Amino acid sequence: MPDRASWRAGVNTALLLVDIQNDYFPGGAMELPGSVMAGARARQLVEAFRRSALPIIHVQHISTRPGATFFLPGTGGVEINECVTPIEGEAVIRKHFPNSFRDTPLLAHLREKQIARLVIAGMMTHMCIDTTTRAAADLGFECWLAHDACACKALSFGGVAIPAESVQAAYMASLNGLFAKVLPVEAICADPGTFPVGGR
Question: Which alpha helices (H) appear in 27-151, and where do they start and end?
Answer without folding.
Answer: 35-51, 106-112, 130-138
